[in-house]
Amino acid sequence: MHFPSLHTFVVHAGLLPHDPLKALSDPEQPLFTADTTLNNPNSRTSEELSILHNVAQNTVPWNLINMRSVRTKGKRKGQPTKSSKKGKPWSNLWNKQMGRCRGPGLWDDQAELEAETWEEVDEAVVQEDEVIQRDDGDEDDEVVDEEALRCSPVTVIYGHAAGRGLDIKPFSKGIDTGCVVSADHRDVKPYIDDQYGKKLTALILGDHGGKGKSVRVGDERGVLVSESCKEHGY
Predict the structure, then answer these.
(1) In a domain, 91, yes or no
(2) Residue 157 lies in a domain
(3) For residue 68, what are the domain limits?
(4) pLDDT band at 134 (very low <50, low <70, confident <90, very high)
(5) How confident is the model at residue 128, as a pLDDT?
(6) What's the structural domain count of the chain?
(7) What are the distances in angstroms from CA 144 to CA 24, 93, 100?
(8) What pTM value is reported for the model?
(9) CA separation for the pair 198, 179 (Å, rounded)
(10) DSSP states of the chain as a string?
(11) Of 7, 52, 54, 122, whose CB count within 10 A is highest?
(12) Can you give the pLDDT at residue 130?
């Protein structure tokens, strides 16, 4: 889902800021070609839609509902994977690239950026992808291009990563905290005993005056609220 007024996407699993198969300076890369410095609302919307439609990996539904990581090196470079142990977390790539954007929505307060990066990981959680055999030949490489861009940063709110817990970064908010087990796994151990029934987390926009942790969502503020779930989440 795309919320233009918030400059935010909500996706089940993940989204990529660029096509890893192309150079970051390739004219087909949405962030490289975007220019929102004139503060035109339409240009920001155009940039955001371009990320969704012009990054090849983002046009594949399976990626949007399964991706936890993306391979950044080797013969499978650019391939999203549901494993959290292969490749690099897509949210790391997302935040690295959005941090280069210098258009409207820029976070110019370093202290705010640092305060917005934190996580709460439940070590007892057992991810489904942890039982998948690792591809030892796949290693991550680093994105070295730090050139500032004329794009505007975009935020993604996502789930499907209970093993990473509450994973909050400036431009991505991972809020899967392992409450409900899917129908496919209710009769499969160890998922019922070890993975779910933890917490349910919601991101509430605006200041609702109650408990929770304040976070930034696009150009606005929101509050993260977590509640304990019943056993197994149902």
Answers:
(1) yes
(2) yes
(3) 2-130+147-196
(4) very low
(5) 42
(6) 1
(7) 10, 12, 12
(8) 0.80
(9) 5
(10) -EETTTTEEEESS---SS-TTS-TT-TTSHHHH---TT--HHHHHHHHHHHHHHSGGGG-HHHHHH-SEE--SSTTTT-EES-SSSSEEHHHHHHHHHTTB-STT----HHHHHHT-EEE--TT---GGGGSPP-TT-----------BS----EEEE-S-GGG-EEEETTEEE---S----GGGTTSTTHHHHTSSSEEEEEEES--SSSSEEEEETTEEEEEEEEEPPGGG-
(11) 7
(12) 41
**Percent over 90 (pLDDT), the chain:** 31
User: Could you tell me the two tokens for 76?
Assistant: 């499978």
3-state secondary structure 45-109: HHHHHHHHHHCHHHHCHHHHHHCCEECCCCCCCCCEECCCCCCEEHHHHHHHHHCCECCCCCCCC
pLDDT tens, 166-221? 889 999 999 888 887 654 444 444 444 445 567 888 888 876 666 888 888 988 88
Which pLDDT band, with edges at 50, 70 and 90, does 120 fall under? low
Residue 229, in any domain of the structure? no
Contact call for residues 92 and 156 (beta carbons, < 8 A):
no
Residue with more model confidence, 194 or 222: 222
Per-residue pLDDT at 58 exceeds 90: yes
Are β-strands 172-174 and 155-158 bridged in parallel, bridged antiparallel, or unpaired?
parallel
Q: Which residues pair with 11 in a beta bridge?
A: 158
Cβ-contact 196, 230 below 8 angstroms:
no
- Alpha-carbon span 108 to 101, nearest angstrom: 11
pLDDT at 69 (0 to 100):
92
